[in-house]
Design a protein that fits this description.
The chain is mainly β. The chain contains 1 helix and 25 strands. The protein starts with 6 loop residues before the first strand and ends in a 14-residue tail after the last strand.
Length: 293
């Protein structure tokens, strides 16, 4: 396992000024890094090899993008899962039975092609957020809290990591054998509020967990045992999530946000909401596609 106790720094690659940048994912087939701006209802696509950039206005509150096994994309948007083709929403695949003040948040796809995603109270007040599974039908799995983040799944598909952002907790659940519910879990990492709040999480090829810290000015890497290995500094406070891209999956892409920052704060962090990158100490994992059954 690659370990480092030092602090690296991320560089700006796209000054897109997202209000709430989130959900980065690298699609190797097209060499494209996708991410969302939840508050502006936008999807962004970066093609780093050729320098291409595209932005698609889809409306609503798009919070994640994942590939489907037929080549299209699936977007979590508000209370719906939507099919995206060539940057256009073409149909609603499923609707989520939840309170009207909730919306989708972060997501991941396991090696078995099952989508796991979280919801949250968009007012950030009530513990109405949950983790769901989608394998052709949407099923509630548990993980009640106000703001869910993650989930993320270990390379072997055994462990699911779920973030309770406001409580500062990253949980780990054993889903070996295709468990459909998060019944018993253990606290994997506790984040001191003075260091920020845990946001999106990602697992690398060594099974280590990366987490963006909202209000923490960095992303952190933790070992499979929960030990802090590395911190990557980001020049803005609200850091949301990491995805690994490039042909070798060794470029860490970091989304950030500027929502809620005062004019004074923005003067000190003018690149807030931008997309950043750093050289990772280990490769990431190839994104799995949702299996359409």
């Amino acid at each position: 396992m690659t370990e480092s106790s030092g602090t690296a720094a991320a560089r700006l690659v796209w000054p897109c000024a997202a209000l709430l940048g989130e959900g980065p994912i690298w699609l190797a087939e097209t060499r494209t890094l996708w991410f969302v701006d939840i508050k502006r209802g936008q999807l962004h696509a970066l093609m780093p090899q050729g320098g291409g950039r595209e932005t698609f206005d889809v409306g609503g509150s798009p919070s994640f993008i994942v590939p489907l096994n037929d080549g299209a994309l699936l977007v979590g948007n508000g209370g719906k899962l939507q099919r995206l083709e060539r940057g256009v929403v073409v149909k609603t695949v499923a609707e989520i039975d939840m309170p009207t003040h909730n919306r989708t948040n972060d997501a991941t796809v396991g090696p078995d092609g099952v989508l796991w995603f979280g919801t949250m109270d968009d007012r950030e007040r009530a513990p109405t957020g949950r983790v769901y599974r989608f394998d052709g039908a949407v099923r509630e799995a548990g993980g009640a809290c106000t703001i869910t983040n993650g989930p993320a799944i270990s390379p072997d598909g055994r462990w699911l990591y779920h973030v309770d952002t406001l409580a500062g907790l990253i949980w780990r659940f054993d889903i070996d054998g295709g468990a459909a519910e998060l019944r018993t879990g253990t606290v994997f990492v506790t984040i001191d509020p003075a260091d920020g709040h845990p946001d999106g999480v990602t697992i690398d090829s060594e099974g280590c967990l990366w987490v963006g810290l909202w209000g923490g000015w960095c992303v952190r890497r933790y070992s499979v045992a929960g030990a802090l290995l590395e911190s990557v500094a980001v020049p803005c406070a609200n850091v949301t999530k990491v995805a690994f891209g490039g042909d070798d999956l060794r470029t860490g892409y970091v989304t950030t946000a500027r929502v809620g920052l005062s004019e004074e704060a923005l003067a000190g962090q003018p690149d807030a909401g931008g997309l950043f990158a750093f050289d990772a100490p280990a490769a990431g994992l190839r994104a799995h596609a949702v299996s359409l059954r």
